[in-house]
Amino acid sequence: MAQYLGPLELIGERWVIGDPTRKQGLSLVLTPEGLEHHRRGEAAPLLAVEWSRFMELQVRAAHRRWHTTPGLGLSAQPGADLGPDGCSLHGLVRHPYDLWSARYTHHERRYTGGHVIVLKALFGRLTEARALNRLGDPEWLGAAVAKLSSHTSWSASKGDLLVKETLKSLGT
């Protein structure tokens, strides 16, 4: 089984977005109940959001760690995965309706273009299917990552097609 897909990584028995081991590492733990935002060295989550509150959820993933520096963010085009928000999840939650976002710490490794493309497509397709809770199922997510991690193309349409076929094969 593949251990990671861009910033999404299997640590123990849980899937985590971001590197919780780096200095003041921020990460998002995908649990059966929802997302937990954690900081290294703190036992309790900074924030927890249930899957049922999410109406939309997207991932931003800068390809290289230095892409997340504040100076690069100032020069970034709107929507580019650069600057401090280049490593973040964002979306729309309900009860109350609000925009939501949380940052995570980039790993030392580079995130490949293919991995970032299929990870973004996975979040998009799960949002569309209203099945974001699948991200909290470690076995299901492991099977999805195993099928998606071989993608190396920078083609968004090929990545989206692979995600669509993967979700269909996994019953979503």
List strands and helices in order, with pairings.
Elements: E1 4-5, E2 8-11, E3 14-17, E4 26-30, E5 34-39, E6 47-50, E7 54-61, H1 70-74, E8 87-93, E9 98-103, H2 113-128, H3 138-148, H4 156-169
Antiparallel strand pairs: 1-2, 2-3, 3-4, 4-5, 5-6, 7-8, 8-9
Helix pairs in contact: 2-4
Short description:
With 172 residues, the protein is α+β, with helices and mostly antiparallel strands.
How many structural domains are formed by the residues?
1
Task: Give the ordered list of helices and strands.
Answer: EEEEEEEHEEHHH
Q: Provide the β-strand percentage band.
A: 25-35%
- The largest beta-sheet arranges its strands as 1-2-3-4-5-6
Radius of gyration using CA atoms only: 15 Å
Spans with pLDDT under 50 lasting ≥5 residues? none
Q: How much helical structure, as a percent, in the residues?
A: 25-40%
Distinct helical segment count: 4
Q: Which structural class do the helices and strands define?
A: alpha+beta
Distance between the termini: 20 Å
Mean pLDDT across the residues is: 89
Number of strands: 9
What's the main sheet like? 6 strands, antiparallel
Report the oligomer. single chain
What coarse outline follows from CA principal-axis ratios?
Answer: globular
